Amino acid sequence: MIQTKDIKKLLTWYRENKRDLPWRHTKDPYRIWVSEIMLQQTRVEAVKPYYAAFLERYPDAKSLAGANEDDLVRIWEGLGYYSRVRNMHKAAMEVQASHGGLFPVSYEVLLTLPGIGSYTAGAVSSIAGGENVPAVDGNVLRVYTRITADDAPVDETKNVKRIREELQEVMENSKRLTDYDPGDFNAAFMELGATVCLPNGEPKCAQCPLRAICAAHKAGNPTEYPKKAPKAKRRIENRTVFVLESSKGIALKKRPEKGLLAGMYELPSADGFLNRKQAGEYIKSLGYHPVRLKEIEESVHIFSHIEWHMKAYHALVDEHTDPVKEDTQNSIFFVTEEERRSGYALPSAFGAYKKYIF
Q1: Are strands 235-246 and 249-254 parallel, antiparallel or unpaired?
Q2: I need a labelling partner for 22 at 20 to 30 A (CA). Which of 117, 128, 325, 333 fits?
Q3: Which tens digits make up the pLDDT trace of 51-94?
Q4: What pLDDT shows up at residue 78?
């Protein structure tokens, strides 16, 4: 068990070495929540400009609750994992409806909001509300499992729950410190993992305030932690993507509201790799006539459990066979350059083909 004296060292180190980040200049639970959601699986430097732009547009839960979802997706474009911003929108609407627009700081209440789990609830409630609850993210798990040489896989829920309970006990014991702050406690562990106890490459053990009690450091094998269960092999999906261009713009379609890239706009595509003849027949099956058909570069996009291997064609379709703006049968519609830039964000999975869109 980590002792109170060790936490004192950690807190002193944090207050002397913490990075100057924009979300560390506020106790506003809404702003802290925005930062925590953006920082999920995203680098700090990448988040900074998005954080500023998002808060300028949506400075509080009320303004976010009243936002248009397509506008939210557009301002989020480039951050990825778009379900995050959709859940933020749902959470803001719930805050507006049930909490009078005041973003809650209670851990238990935060857990009732869409898209908020135990980590985010712990971070917001401890930093903004001073609640003595842990916030256990990947950085914290890495630091803790190295200190304790914990062999249990951290991608199993039961083990994360146990570590969270152990850290809760450490926090309770730490309350005897005169300068103890639960928000600083959580931020210190996260900062140590982000800047010293690094995930890739050798950790900077010489700079670590907890190296004297770190079991992995003493054993000389810190990079062996945290342990993870063997991963299932990613499924490969072959797809043929179409950049269809007509006098009315570029063809898009909306993905289903559930599943991968839920509710996002995408380029039309077919399963499998189609040769040139098959590609032309596929376009005709949609009700359009390809006047000019050109094969363009292939691309690969990796999701957590799926790989898209994409072959692609750029086609000019005859405007005479395209009399309507929207193809209700195939859920395909055409947008102009201005329309796409203002309201239709494409996922990064199609990044290789954005140069063909206007």
Answers
A1: antiparallel
A2: 117
A3: 999 999 999 999 999 999 888 988 998 888 888 999 999 999 99
A4: 86
In a domain, 230, yes or no: no
Calpha distance 32→126 (Å, rounded) = 11
Region 209-235: what's the mean pLDDT? Answer: 93
pLDDT digits (tens, 9 = 90+) for 268-277: 999 999 999 9
Residues 220 and 257 occupy one common structural domain: no
Query: What amino acid is encoded at 85 in this protein?
Result: V
pTM for the model stands at 0.71
Q: Is the pLDDT reported for residue 324 higher than 50?
A: no
36 an active-site residue? yes
State how far the Cα of 206 lies from the Cα of 144, in Å rounded to an integer: 17
Please check whether residue 162 lies inside any domain of the structure. Answer: yes
In this structure, are 306 and 219 located in the same domain?
no
Cα angle 130, 133, 139; round to 5:
110
Active-site residue (options: 36, 131, 191, 245): 36
Residue among 200, 325, 312 at smallest CA distance from 252 = 325
Residues 94 and 190 in one domain: yes
Burial of 325 (0-12, 13-18, 19+ CB in 10 A): exposed
Euclidean distance between CA atoms 155 and 226, whole angstroms: 9
